[in-house]
Structures are given as structure tokens and as C-alpha cells.
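User: Reviewer 2 asked us to show a designed sequence for the structure in our supplementary figure. I'm pasting the C-alpha cells here. Could you produce the per-position amino acids so we can include them in the response letter?
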């Protein structure tokens, strides 16, 4: 079943950069990786999908209304609050009870430090708290902007497990990353962006086969003539 389609979706900023006429579709229950270099347009696309920005032209067609859970890139939590307080605040907006808050804190192994102020957290711990808040609730679309940022190899592997668990529950996952090998391990579909335009989109395995590429990295380098 189709989840969403975009048609010539564009958001060009004053500096002439952003996202240009992006058209793609995504089926429900799939994991989609957004890949591309710095400034390719990944976060711009995510901001349009999450409704944080409105497109200048083109459209997003949602085939059914979606409750979205979202993990932003580079979140700035109030550093004087504890992990518990931050989750309480965010959970109250979604009307989510205490036991679920406790559950997500345990899932990201921040239970033992839940009463510490976030300013004492390492980057990876803050990123795990960011992940925890995105797991709250039962929105059937999970959007993760650079979720591996700051995570060590153990937590990257845990993140992968969590994403696959979400998929197994019937959730659709969209995530951006610079880690092409990670994208290849987790994703069903891929959208390769370059300077605001879609270079490649579709089923990852089919594309690698069609393009006679051994890996996503190999394909990416080939398409950019690197
Ligand atoms: N608010 C803004 N105002 C002006 N230009 C912007 C704005 N947001 C993004 N851009 C420009 O749009 C382009 C795409 O940026 P975007 O953040 O979507 O890229 P990205 O693929 O997420 O990059 P990165 O991997 O570096 O996070 C960049 O050239 C960026 O400078």
C-alpha cells in the first residue's frame, strides 16, 4: 500500500539551494534511506515531510493521514533539566504515560542516569535521549534525521535493531545518513540526493542489480563520477 507520493516537491532558499522538483513514492512498511553529501537536501526534504517547512511548489500526497514520530538532527535539550524531566515534558505533549517513558529510557540504557542533568551527558547520551523521545507513542511513520550521529558502534547496531523492530511492527521508517554501509544494511529503499536533486530512487537491491554495483558506496561514487 502506498504511503506517500511527492510530485515536483521544491523548496529553494534565497541562496538558490535546497530541494528541486523531487518526485518519488514510498510504500507503507518500508525503510527508506536518504543519502547524499553535505548540503544535498536531506534535511530539507525531512522538514517538508514533517511539516516544519512548507514547500514553495509541488506537493506531498499522503495516502492516509500519518501520525509522525520524529528524531531531529542536532537537538538542543535544555541542559539544566534531567533526562526524566525532558521526557516527561515531551511525553505530556503526546499524552503518554509514565510507564512508557520509563520503558524508552531503559531501551536506550539511560535509566541509571535518568536523574542527571543533561548538561552532564556525552554527545552519544544526548543522542540516545533524542532517540528515546522519538520512540514515544505509536505514530506509524518514524522519521530519523542523521540518527547515527554521535553513536558508537554498539549503539549504531542497537539503532539498527530498533529500526528493524519498528518495521516488523508495521511502521514505515525514513532516515538520513552519511553512512552508506549502514544505509545498505537497514534500508529497503533508497533516495540518493545531490545538490538538491534526486539522482536515484527506488528499491535498493533492484537498483544495485540494475546498475551492476556491488555496494551503495560503489554506486554513489559512480553516479557522482568520483
Ligand atoms: N534555512 C536555510 N536557508 C538557506 N539555505 C538553506 C537553509 N536550509 C538549508 N539550506 C541550504 O539548502 C541546501 C540543502 O541543505 P540540507 O540541510 O537539506 O542538506 P543535507 O543533505 O541535510 O546536508 P548535511 O548532510 O550537511 O546535513 C544546502 O546548500 C543548504 O545551505
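Assistant: Here is a per-position design you can include in the supplement:
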Amino acid at each position: 500500500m502506498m504511503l506517500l507520493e511527492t510530485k515536483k516537491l521544491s523548496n529553494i532558499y534565497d541562496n538558490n539551494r535546497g530541494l528541486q522538483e523531487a518526485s518519488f513514492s514510498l510504500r507503507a512498511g518500508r525503510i527508506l534511506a536518504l543519502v547524499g553529501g553535505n548540503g544535498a537536501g536531506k534535511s530539507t526534504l525531512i522538514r517538508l515531510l514533517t511539516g516544519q517547512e512548507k514547500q514553495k511548489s509541488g506537493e506531498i500526497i499522503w495516502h492516509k493521514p500519518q501520525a509522525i514520530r520524529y528524531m531531529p538532527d542536532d537537538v538542543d535539550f535544555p541542559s539544566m533539566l534531567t533526562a526524566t524531566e525532558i521526557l516527561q515534558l515531551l511525553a505530556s505533549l503526546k499524552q503518554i504515560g509514565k510507564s512508557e517513558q520509563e520503558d524508552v529510557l531503559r531501551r536506550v540504557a539511560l535509566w541509571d542516569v535518568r536523574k542527571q542533568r543533561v548538561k552532564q551527558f556525552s554527545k552519544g547520551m544526548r543522542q540516545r535521549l533524542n532517540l528515546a523521545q522519538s520512540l514515544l507513542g505509536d505514530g506509524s511513520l518514524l522519521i530519523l534525521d542523521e540518527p547515527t550521529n554521535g553513536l558508537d558502534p554498539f549503539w549504531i547496531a542497537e539503532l539498527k535493531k530498533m529500526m528493524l523492530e519498528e518495521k516488523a511492527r508495521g511502521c514505515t521508517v525514513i532516515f538520513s545518513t552519511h553512512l552508506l554501509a549502514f544505509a545498505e544494511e537497514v534500508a529497503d529503499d533508497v533516495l540518493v540526493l545531490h545538490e538538491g536533486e534526486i539522482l536515484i530512487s527506488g528499491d535498493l537491491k533492484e537498483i544495485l542489480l540494475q546498475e551492476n554495483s556491488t555496494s551503495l558506496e560503489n554506486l554513489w561514487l559512480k553516479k557522482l563520477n568520483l
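For the response letter, you might also mention the following. The chain has two domains: 1-67+140-226, 76-137. The pocket of adenosine-5'-triphosphate is lined by residues 13, 15, 17-18, 36, 38-44 (CB under 6 Å).
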